[in-house]
Every structure is written in C-alpha cells, then in structure tokens.
Amino acid sequence: MGLLEGKTALVTGIANKRSIAWGIARAFDREGARLILTYQNDRLKENLDKLVGDLSNAPILVAPLDVSDDGSLTALAERIGDVTDALDVLVHSVAFAKGEDLSGRFLETSREGYHLAQDISAYSLTALVRALYEPLKNAGRASVMAMTYQGSIRVMPNYNVMGVAKAALESSVRYLAFDLGREGIRVNAISAGPIKTLAAAGVKGISSALHSTVERAPIAENITTEDVGNAAVFLASPWSERITGHVLYVDSGFHIMGF
Ligand code: 0WD
C-alpha cells in the first residue's frame, strides 16, 4: 500500500517534464494519492495533457490557475469543491521574476520587478492557502509545502530579487504554520539544490550552481526532481506529522558548507 493512499493532493507549477512539480506529482502518484493538477496557461495545458498519460491513475481534476489573479484562485476553489470536500496536500511550486532582474546587480531592481517577484513567488502561497482554507481544514490533517532555494539566506550571484522573494516565502511558511497549526494544517518548505528546469534556465549562472554542488557538497552529486518528489512524499505523509514551519534541505548537503 502506498504512503499517500486515500489522500487528495493538489500540485501546482507543472510546466513540462523537467518541472520539480512533475517529479512531485509522479512520486505522489506512485504512493497512491488522488491528484489535482493545475496549469498556468493553454500552452502549458498541452504539455500537461501529454504528461498525465504516464501516471498510473488519471488526475481527478486538471484545472487552470494563475496565482496572480484572485478570480482564478476562486475559480479553482470552486472546481475543487465539485470533486472533493477535503484537500489533504497542497504543493506550491510556482515562481516568476523578470529576466532583467535575474542577472547583474540586485541594486538595479525596479519597484515593479520587485513587486512582481514577491506577488507570484511569495504572496501566492498565502493567497492559495486562503483560497483553499476550507478543504484544507476539512482534511483534518493537511500538509502544505512550498519550494524554495538557499538564495533566500545566502547571496547567490544573479538570483537577486528571487532570493528576496524566497526569504519572504520561507517567512510566510512560518507564519502560516503558526496560524494554521491548531486546525491540523502543517506548512513546510523544501529547499532544493539547483536543477535544470525552465525556471532555472532564466537565472544566469545555473551551470555554475550545478557545478558547485558536485564540487563542494558533501554528497558530490546534483539532485533530481525524483529526490524532491520523495522528500515531498515524506512531508505529505503521516511520518512527518509533528513537523511544521520547517525548511527541509534537499541539496546533497550543500547548505552546511563554508569553504
Ligand atoms: O533549481 C531549481 N530549478 C530550483 C527551483 C531550486 C530550488 C527551488 N526551485 C523552485 C522554484 O523557485 C519554484 O518555486 O521550485 C519551484 C518550481 O520551479 P521549477 O520546477 O524549477 O521551474 P518550472 O518547471 O519552470 O516551473 C515553475 C512554473 C512556471 O513555469 P514557467 O517557467 O513557464 O514560468 O511556475 C508556474 C509556471 O508554470 N508559474 C505560475 N503558475 C501559476 N500562476 C505563474 C502564475 N502566475 N507564474 C509561473
């Protein structure tokens, strides 16, 4: 029997087969979860339609979601309400910043670029949890998780405005964990090491980040979306029942290193 048998899990942020969210969806599927998947726009829906054929169980719902649009969040909550009263697992795997804000000096970040990165990459977690509060509460023991990166606490050249957004995201995880703990809703983050995805390709210097992991991390190997998927299964399962407000590093141990 799978670790997530009988659980309903929403996974956001699948852009293509390289997406971290796809690694998570596959791991959840393997463990017997009932999946709800979202896509950002029609172009990405086509990718998702092809990918879901690889799952052992068809998703119970595939729906659009633009996290920057409150109407879209409300519409998603309604669609979810049509298929289930309870949502056991919620995965936030969404981030965006302007290309020009992901290279050069952080100093040059515009007000607009800063707001955009914060809105889509950090505030969206709170917006999503707010929109889905009822089904999460109904689950009794729900688990929410967000994807983050160590650029939140250390300077990773070029990560810039996204590092600041990830700091806000990780802080949001802690405040939400406090707000929702008494309702049985846990909120955690997974801080993944660098993985070559569509979003990562937008950050100048991803190749050197991948190279650094192999050179300097205790486990001298880059991580995969499958590694993140397995950690997500743990956070979604009862085996992590007393863990909340935590940032779990899945980075081959890179974060413990000084020199
Ligand atoms: O090295 C990496 N790849 C790491 C990624 C290391 C550590 C953390 N992360 C984080 C990212 O910051 C993000 O939060 O993992 C999460 C998932 O990112 P990913 O899997 O690396 O990237 P990708 O496959 O591109 O998925 C992110 C998706 C978007 O894709 P594109 O590249 O088309 O922007 O986030 C979605 C979109 O599908 N997205 C949105 N979804 C709903 N509403 C929105 C939006 N407004 N904007 C972006």
UniProtKB/TrEMBL annotation:
Q: Name one Pfam family in it.
A: adh_short_C2
Query: Might you name a Gene Ontology BP term for this protein?
Result: fatty acid biosynthetic process
List the active site: 149, 159
Q: Catalyses which reaction?
A: a 2,3-saturated acyl-[ACP] + NAD(+) = a (2E)-enoyl-[ACP] + NADH + H(+)
Please list the GO terms describing molecular function.
Answer: enoyl-[acyl-carrier-protein] reductase (NADH) activity
Residues the entry annotates as binding substrate: 97
Record keywords: Fatty acid biosynthesis, Fatty acid metabolism, Lipid biosynthesis, Lipid metabolism, NAD, Oxidoreductase
From the UniProt record, give the pathway where this protein acts: Lipid metabolism
EC number from the UniProt entry? 1.3.1.9
What does the entry list as the binding residues for NAD(+)?
13, 19-20, 40, 66-67, 94, 166, 195-199
Q: Which PANTHER family match?
A: ENOYL-[ACYL-CARRIER-PROTEIN] REDUCTASE (PTHR43159), ENOYL-[ACYL-CARRIER-PROTEIN] REDUCTASE [NADH], CHLOROPLASTIC (PTHR43159:SF2)
The entry's family comment says:
Belongs to the short-chain dehydrogenases/reductases (SDR) family. FabI subfamily.
Query: What is the protein name for this chain?
Result: Enoyl-[acyl-carrier-protein] reductase [NADH]
Q: Which organism is it from?
A: Sulfobacillus harzensis
